[in-house]
Amino acid sequence: MAEIADTATVRRASLKDATDTRALSAASPLVPLTSIATDQWRQLSEAACEPNGYYLPGWELAVNAFAPGRTDASALAAWNGDRLIGLLPLVSMWHAHKIPLPALVSAHPYGTLCAPPLDRAMAPEAAAQLLQQARDAGAHALILRDMPLDGAAMNAFTDVLRRDGIEPRVLLSNLRACLDATRDADELLHDALGTKKLKELRRLRHRLAEHGAVRFDVARRGDEIAAAVETFLALEASGWKGARGTALAQNSGDASFVRHATTALATTGQCEIVTLRAGDMPVAAGIVLRHQDRAFFFKIGVDERFAKFSPGVQLTLDLTRHLCADPAIASADSTASPDHPMINPIWRGRFAIGDVLIPLRPNDPVVPIIHAAMTARQSILEQARRGVRLIRTWRQKRR
Hints:
Blueprint lengths: L30 E2 L5 H10 L9 H10 L7 E7 L2 E10 H5 L5 E4 L16 H14 L4 E8 L3 H12 L5 E12 L4 H24 L5 E6 L2 H17 L1 H5 L7 H15 L4 E8 L2 E11 L2 E9 L8 H14 L6 E3 L15 E11 L6 H33 L1
Parallel strand pairs: 4-5, 10-11
Antiparallel strand pairs: 1-2, 2-3, 3-4, 5-12, 6-11, 6-12, 7-8, 8-9, 9-10
Helix pairs in contact: 2-9, 4-5, 6-10, 7-9
């Protein structure tokens, strides 16, 4: 990773620091993510103040080992004696965004959630240690991507920063769909979709059953997961993601990551792969992570030959019933885009999530430069997305 400057001696930031990308010194608190003992990481995950299935060691270490563009992360670790009380997987701003400025950025664990594990009994202490270590590493700012803005981890960082008169800056935010799994599933689905839509979905399910009895399977054990992940990968690659070349199975690194991650989490009971079948034919499958009392809906794959029966929606209805019936699960994060056309009408809960810029020193003149660079980058990305949408619309009209 392209490292940031060593500032072992704390001093006021200068404008020269904005482009200082010298190698870290041996005294830097940043360590390779792989150097964190897995058993200590697991203990921290169990004690974390906020669930995040994507920063479980079995998942993030597989991403770090195999997923192209997401490997070779570093970490800051907070300790209370020999007890790990906080962990922040990171990459440099250059590694994350190809911007040569002295900031550290959350290592992205493929799932769109980067809330770091902080021990719930010592969250402020953990947050304070991590912030100080980021300073000691030479960073002028942290950029925490995909953070629940009202979550316990963000609150811990905010409280610590306010002691020094520092306010985090939200770079962008949106509302994401989530499920209140403490509710009765049938009542929840009726409130979300209404009688008419549910009746239509039942009709489509009956038509799907003409191809074989419809059943919802849940793989949990390692041998079940190994077979189910291949079904998921094949389904995902058979649809529009495969046509665009973005399916996991189309990249050997991505495929290796998801195979290793799901198998690793199966050993700790923190992964399920759900599959909807018509007879022996799988028509939809999804990967679901579990951490504490929350589930995380990673991705879905469908057989688009059955698209007229809404297989993705049918799978999500069954998954909703499955999660609501599980007393160990209180909520589920869709980890979907804010405008997701399938999940948003079904899971009507919402929570705020966003990217947050954390200045590490009061009145640091480098921070506005970092902020401006991130704002410009976001503007360019949004213009590119609009261009892609226009091209797709134009192509559809020509067909």
